[in-house]
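Hey, I was hoping to borrow your eyes for a little while. No rush at all, and the record is pasted right below:
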Amino acid sequence: TVLCMSNVDDVLLELPLRELNGFGGKLGDQLIENYRIQCVGELRRFSHQELEEMSLGTAKVKNSSALWMYEACRGICNETVKARIAPKSYSCGKTFRGPDKLRQIKDVENYVYKLSTELSSRLISAREKYKQTASTLSVHI
């Protein structure tokens, strides 16, 4: 996502940590569990050296990770923006919580059918529009 610099603070200060690419795995887990960091903006209170001490891995990896965190929480990213016309993946999902939980097999079958029909429609469209064909299908229940 590309933002104007004038909007970076507004977005990053309250952005949940896991929402920023790179903070979804072990690093994000450690920052949340050990340092109680919830939002990206909270990282700004740490110096580069402190972020290095909080990082995982070898000294070289820690230094690189700390620099990346220091810049990321300030909206600095030097990666090249890559134009992408066709999507890399297609998905279709639904989460059922509380009273909406699927309790009977027929309900599960019904939603699997609905979701697979929707995904099939998207894949047919992608084949026509971008000449893409699916190579992998993953189902998560």
About this structure: The chain is about 50% helix and 0% strand. The mean pLDDT is 89. The CA atoms of residues 95 and 117 lie 17 Å apart. Helices lie at 5-14, 26-35, 48-54, 59-72, 105-130.
